[in-house]
Amino acid sequence: MRSSGLFLLLFAATAWAQLSTIGPQAVYEGQTVVAVDLIANPHRDVEPLRAFLTQKEGQPYSQANVESSIAALQQKGGFPKVTVNVLPEPSGLRLNFLLEPAYYLGIVAFPGVVKAFSYTRLLQIVNLPDEDPYDWARIPVAETNLQNFLQKNGYFQAKIQTKSEIDDAHQLVNVSFIVELGKQARIGTVDMQGPDSPESSRLLHAVRSLRARFSGGLLKSGKPYTPERMSAATVLIKRMLSQQRHLASSVQQNPPQYHAETNRVDVSFKIEVGPVVIVRTTGARLSLFPFVSGRQLKKLIPIYSEGTIDSDLVNEGQQNLVEYFQKKGYFDVNVKTNFQRQPDQILLVYEIDRGKKHKVDRISFQGNHQISEDDLLAQVVVKPSHIWSHGAISQKLVKQSAANLQALYRDRGYENVKVTPQVTDHEPKIDVAFLIEEGPQTLVDNVQVTGNDNVPYDQLTAPKGFELRSGAPFASRRLSEDRNRISATYLNRGYLNAEVKTTVSRHPEDPHRVDVTYAITEHQLVRVGDVLLLGQKQTRLSLIKKTAKIPPESPMSRGGLLEAETRLYDLNIFDWSSVGPRKPITDQTEESALIKVHEAKRNEITYGIGFEVSHRGGHIPSGTVAVPGLPTIGLGKNQIAPSQSTFASPRGSIQFNRCSPPALEMCLSRWSG
């Protein structure tokens, strides 16, 4: 758990800047602004304030106009604080003016649809991330995205009603997309557009065959319309055309035609049948067995997998063949291509001259004075021969080995190292030598840390310590790891806006002696205010709090938040969990922690008895009956009796949450209480 937590924290330290919102910058000067949103308290109508904005939609971005707009909003609207976020989009820039105090997103729910789709997938569709301010203008966009997703999955009758519940006490807005799915549409007619009549008939037969049934691509009238079924059918059509050597064919799905009166979808494909492509190899076989040779050819020649043909793919196939034979010991292999395009077919011939088989005899190093051969040999992917193998060598493996050796030297401080591979052919043996020019080693002279007012020096990179220290080799990787560990330490102690900047100064008299400075700007310590729990329905609040372990008034640790998410998910009660601050951390010293969960589907246990009676010379129907007096079952005070009101089945049922052993006691307590 500690190692995984450290990994998550280091990841957060390196990626946190990418997750934060982008503020106004002069780099956007002159770019087109496509949208301007005013985000504020949902109880307040801020649309009249648009008249005071000097930065308008459709105009070029101007830093001066943005700052003027901020001042006007503060003055005319009476907002204590106004910030702007610039969001680059494909069509231009979107500006979000955040008018504090704003409300933020709470839990997003999907009543009526989570049984058909996973909660995490639905969250991706509506795209309402955590810590985002509530913007009413984004809700219709999210609703449209959800509607399109449901239609794509065959639910054309789905109706969506969006409901926003405002929590004034915590300045949150919970959004519910209430969905009536309706019946899933069925496939109506299937049409192949483009091929001639015989080819269309063959393809239609293919998508209705037994193979289509097993592959999930069965397109038969009355079958459910799903994107998985359509994708599988598309793959099947391409495979059928490939088997007929139409490797450059194009298959595209046309937009579905839905008929509401029958709840049927007519599907069609736009197909361009390309010329027949014949691929052959001459001079050498890929395998002794023809069927193995054919399979290997399809793996090595990318036009089979890409479904098209061009010069780049032809050359890539040539390189793959060279690599294939070199790995088998034919280092001098030569592959030529013969490409002939005719009106009705394309002939591609790979002429292979594999030469004589070689063995890797020796791997040696020259010029390595500071690193042992054992350390160098561990980086080499070329392998020498032994009794039952010719070794492993190819041009790709030789280049990769040289790159690995250079990386090792640079990590040891040799910034100007050069590694030149040299392959010598002594028929039938091959010697591989790596000529190394080490160059001077760059060493760290002094390491200085500034700005660490609240974290002692020896705890900044604990428990491992600094990789760069006085007298140690200098390497950019070590510098990055030290910076990330310092950032992780501050994030874990509640300094969520801490910044760490590195400076490398080379000595004028000796450029291979450097001084390293880590300049830290700690900013404010952020503590946990309230701990808010959202999304739970059956699970006890005490279980969630006990598992999350986020006490109020404690430092808001990024590592602690990530570990809390993991612990909640490991309960196997929730299929999604999110733990983080209520809103992005800017200058506040205290912030509420939101624990959001979504409970997984509950399991059901059924029990009962049945009997079957047969009689010689006659027949008595078999079935199950309710028998009075069956024992009840239950846990604690809850006792469930079998049904006695019908002759269908004497069943009782228990519903329970999936719990891990540490949570079992509390789960059962919730069930029985």
Task: Please give the structural blueprint.
Elements: H1 2-19, E1 33-39, H2 63-77, E2 81-89, E3 92-100, E4 104-109, H3 119-126, H4 138-152, E5 159-167, E6 172-180, E7 186-193, H5 197-206, H6 210-215, H7 227-243, E8 250-253, E9 257-259, E10 264-272, E11 276-282, H8 290-300, H9 303-306, H10 311-327, E12 334-341, E13 345-353, E14 359-366, H11 373-377, H12 395-411, E15 418-426, E16 429-437, E17 443-450, H13 476-492, E18 499-506, E19 513-521, E20 527-534, H14 541-548, H15 558-570, E21 574-581, E22 590-599, E23 603-607, E24 633-635, E25 638-640, E26 652-656, H16 661-672
Helix pairs in contact: 1-13, 1-15
- What is the CATH topology classification name of the largest domain? Ubiquitin-like (UB roll)
| Total domains | 8
Low-pLDDT regions:
11-22, 613-673
What's the CATH first level of the largest domain?
A: Alpha Beta
Q: Tell me the name of the CATH homologous superfamily of the largest domain.
A: membrane protein fhac
Strand content: 25-35%
Can you tell me the overall shape? globular
Question: What's the total helix number?
Answer: 16
Tell me the number of strands: 26
| Main β-sheet description | 4 strands, mixed
First and last CA, distance: 33 Å
- Tell me which CATH architecture of the largest domain applies here: Roll
Overall pLDDT confidence: 86
Helicity range of the residues? 25-40%
User: Taking Cα atoms only, what radius of gyration do you get, to the nearest Å?
Assistant: 34 Å
Q: What class do helices, strands and sheet pairing give?
A: alpha/beta
